[in-house]
């Protein structure tokens, strides 16, 4: 698989306004020609709430350019650059095409898919759309995260190339579907929990689902 970089973005937390309400967030990002990624961060990029964002499992946030067309039609308005707070806006790499554990070579960096994204209400505030978050969960157009296997520089003209396809073939879209829409699928939950590459936060989420099913049984 080869993808295309549409844009690169980064930003640090700042005070933002939405419908007369102020909030602090790192969701607002500016377009960049290059990004330097380390094992724990993108240089010059940061999050406001470290309890729910950031960390080694969530260094690079990815969102598919294909979804912008859907959202702009659905919302009836154009979206701003990096409207979902992503670092990489890409095409040809949507959630049902990439799997947890897949590795991509982008520029001089090697990145590994760690989890689907679990957006928060800041998405609504930043885009002034009260129902956007719920719609993201319903569609599965969440985006996903990379952890960094090898630090390096990513430039806009670089081509993302999948260099390792995880044999389990559990896509970001599939895992999202199980968590949000098929919580009693014990077999799928078991399979997902076998993924060593799955981010620790998501392992905890699926362990809770499994424990609940065991109690119900």
TrEMBL record:
Residues 29-163 form the MOSC domain. InterPro entries: Benzoxazolinone_Detox_Enz (IPR052353), MoCF_Sase_C (IPR005302), Pyrv_Knase-like_insert_dom_sf (IPR011037), Tri_helical_YiiM-like (IPR005163). Pfam families: MOSC (PF03473), YiiM_3-alpha (PF03475). The lineage of its organism: Bacteria, Bacillati, Bacillota, Bacilli, Bacillales. One of its GO terms (molecular function) is catalytic activity. PANTHER family: PROTEIN YIIM. This is MOSC domain-containing protein.
């Amino acid at each position: 698989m080869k993808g295309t970089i549409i844009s690169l973005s980064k930003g640090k937390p700042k005070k933002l306004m939405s419908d007369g309400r102020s909030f602090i967030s790192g969701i607002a990002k500016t377009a960049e020609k290059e990004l330097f990624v380390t094992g724990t961060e993108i240089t010059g990029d940061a999050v406001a709430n470290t309890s729910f964002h950031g960390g080694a499992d969530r260094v690079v946030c990815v969102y598919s350019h294909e979804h912008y067309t859907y959202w702009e039609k659905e919302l009836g308005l154009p979206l701003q650059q990096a409207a979902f707070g992503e670092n990489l806006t890409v095409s040809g790499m949507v959630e049902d095409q990439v799997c947890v554990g897949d590795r991509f070579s982008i520029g001089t960096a090697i990145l590994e898919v760690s989890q689907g994204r679990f957006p928060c209400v800041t998405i609504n505030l930043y885009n002034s759309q009260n129902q956007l978050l719920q719609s993201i969960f319903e569609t599965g157009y969440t985006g996903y995260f990379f952890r960094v296997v090898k630090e390096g520089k990513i430039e806009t003209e670089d081509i993302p190339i999948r260099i390792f396809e995880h044999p389990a073939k559990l896509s970001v879209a599939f895992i999202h579907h199980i968590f949000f829409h098929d919580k009693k699928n014990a077999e799928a939950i078991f399979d997902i929990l076998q993924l060593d590459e799955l981010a620790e936060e998501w392992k905890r989420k699926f362990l809770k689902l499994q424990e609940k099913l065991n109690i119900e049984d």
